[in-house]
Amino acid sequence: MYTLRTLIFITTLLILTQSSVALSRPEAIDSLLKRLDSKRASSSVQESAAIAVLKRLLPSHIHSFVFEIVSKDVCRGHSCFLINNYYKKSSGNGPEISIKGTTAVEIASGLHWYLKYQCGAHISWDKTGGVQIASIPRPGSLPLVKDKGVMIQRPVPWNYYQNVVTSSYSYVWWNWERWEKELDWMALQGINLPLAFTGQEAIWHKVFMNFNITTEDLNDFFGGPAFLAWARMGNLHSWGGPLPHNWLDQQLCLQKQILSRMLELGMTPVLPSFSGNVPAALKKIFPSANITRLGDWNTVDKNPQWCCTYLLNPSDPLFVEIGEAFIRQQVKEYGDVTDIYNCDTFNENSPPTSDPAYISSLGAAVYKAMSRGDKDAVWLMQGWLFYSDSAFWKPPQMQALLHSVPFGKMIVLDLFAEAKPIWKNSSQFYGTPYVWCLLHNFGGNIEMYGILDAISSGPVDARTSDNSTMVGVGMCMEGIEQNPVVYELMSEMAFRSGKPQVLEWLKTYSHRRYGKAVHQVVAAWDILYHTVYNCTDGIADHNTDFIVKVS
Ligand SMILES: *[C@@H]1O[C@H](CO)[C@@H](O)[C@H](O)[C@H]1NC(C)=O
Ligand SMILES: *[C@@H]1O[C@H](CO)[C@@H](O)[C@H](O)[C@H]1NC(C)=O
Ligand SMILES: *[C@@H]1O[C@H](CO)[C@@H](O)[C@H](O)[C@H]1NC(C)=O
Ligand SMILES: *[C@@H]1O[C@H](CO)[C@@H](O)[C@H](O)[C@H]1NC(C)=O
Ligand SMILES: *[C@@H]1O[C@H](CO)[C@@H](O)[C@H](O)[C@H]1NC(C)=O
Q: Is 406 in the pocket of ligand 3 (CB under 6 A)?
């Protein structure tokens, strides 16, 4: 068997190799990282949050671990975790293992790493198997790590999570209890840049009221709970609605709980911003505003009751006013919790002309609205349009959009990088920092597939390529709770500087997942690796069959 000792040896080797290479990062990104670090919760708050994760996961071992937040200086300015044996003065069921990390997320990731690679445990979503912790020895008998301990440094600063549609495919009916579990899962996987989209309609309600839009107007605007993502993107309006007032209140309350926990764990939430999507009534209140009626998107049979929403042109001064008001309202409700805002104005919706100067002015206006509300705002944009609408987004148009804001004020998600990477043919987004993302799972359809080789090598190739502008890895699946192997490997890439050997990795994966080594299972995973988990056809939706066709 591929022993744990070998794995730790390899890990150590990787760290040694890496520490001799200075990671170059643009100064703008460094100063953003410093600013975000300065907003984090205190060390004691984060340490308590990490202990609480342990308590929910493994209450029997609450006294076996000692957690400590350490400065990035410990890892030459980078984020990292360190696992060491705790040399106790007295015997008994006291601490055995010490885990240090630069935030609570790194501590939780270190705990996860230890439980995986020292104790053979496995942690998955409940719907994809839940936790396998039977292999963890009882307190007092935890395995020791090698003398010098384990030190793992993030090769890139960020690990992003979620797609703007995940809220609708997976989370919409969740209560706090389910969210708390997900936030624990996120911390254990090392996610430090999660989208936080819950409750935004409550914020919009307050903002639009100040622009004299009525509740009735908004009833014709917001989608129902199950369709929020598409209403937010302007694909449809009022479908499945209206949203009762108690829904708005309850979602806002939930969002505050989610944000508090993200902050306690040392994560940087990504909040929504204004993309131009407005209620029809705005046209009556501001008759001179430049508001365009969009065409029929997809699913609502051209019925104007639901289709053909209105887009306020970013070059209109009202755009900046509304955009600023929305950011300010969020700061008022949540406090100064982030500088990173998502905006996808041109997602499946091309600008009216392809003139680069015009596109550049639109981009500048979107950023202006954000930065008026938060002077340090950074625009995080899904790069889906560069793939889905590549006939429009040719190099001049891409450059115009990407260069429409000051350098370092935009981060792009290379959304479908496992199958259709854009970084390769865009001179790395023309110098713009980007996150290498796994897309996967289209439409919340449960299909057994993935491309493990692309996940194990893609982020490493992207980061080590000439003039790389990659600043993170991410998971932008449309719906969650499927294909756990894909998400476990992808999450590890946030902490791996070299390419894991997938077949070897799968052996340890199956051992951990099933609680013991079974050679038939290892053989089965070998088959899966070469078939459904080497699904290189690049097709987004395999829903015609429950297992993908392997050509
Ligand atoms: C909203 O209506 C009030 C009262 O009619 C008016 O004074 C105010 O200027 C309006 N606000 C906007 C943004 O139109
Ligand atoms: C309104 O916006 C459109 C593009 O959406 C633009 O072509 C037009 O010139 C704008 N009109 C005014 C009056 O600014
Ligand atoms: C870059 O590659 C993507 C994905 O393979 C493709 O969709 C796009 O058209 C390409 N863009 C350019 C400018 O070549
Ligand atoms: C990297 O940047 C250097 C300096 O600007 C340039 O000469 C070189 O061609 C670039 N390499 C690639 C692969 O773009
Ligand atoms: C996956 O498929 C590609 C292309 O069909 C092939 O080159 C590669 O060897 C396969 N990898 C595995 C692990 O089967």
A: no
Atom of ligand 3 nearest to the CA of 393: 13
pLDDT digits (tens, 9 = 90+) for 208-267: 999 999 999 999 999 999 999 999 999 999 999 999 999 999 999 999 999 999 999 999
Sequence ranges of the chain with CATH classification 3.30.379.10: 43-153
CA of 281 to the centre of ligand 1 (A): 14
Q: What are phi and psi of 253, to 5 degrees?
A: -65, -45
Q: Which residue owns the Cα nearest ligand 3 atom 12? A: 425
Range(s) within the chain of domains with CATH label 3.20.20.80: 157-199+243-272+336-529
Ligand 3 centroid, distance to 539 Cα (angstroms): 15
Q: Which CATH architecture has domain 157-199+243-272+336-529?
A: Alpha-Beta Barrel (3.20)
Fold observed for domain 43-153:
Chitobiase; domain 2 (3.30.379)
Measured by CA distance, the residue closest to atom 3 of ligand 4 is 467
**Beta-carbon contacts of residue 362 (< 8 Å; ≥ 6 apart):** 313, 314, 315, 345, 351, 401, 404
Mutate to test the pocket of ligand 3, among 354, 384, 386 (most ligand atoms within 8 A of CB): 386
Predicted structure pTM score: 0.93
Å from CA of 229 to ligand 2 middle: 27
Edge-to-edge order in the sheet of strand 271-272: 193-194, 158-161, 470-475, 434-438, 410-414, 378-382, 340-342, 271-272
Cα 317 to its chain centre, rounded Å, is: 32
Q: What is the pLDDT of residues 165-220, one digit of tens each?
A: 999 999 999 999 999 999 999 999 999 999 999 999 999 999 999 999 999 999 99
Query: What tokens were used for 69?
Result: 């937040």
* Per-residue pLDDT band at 25 (split at 50, 70, 90): low
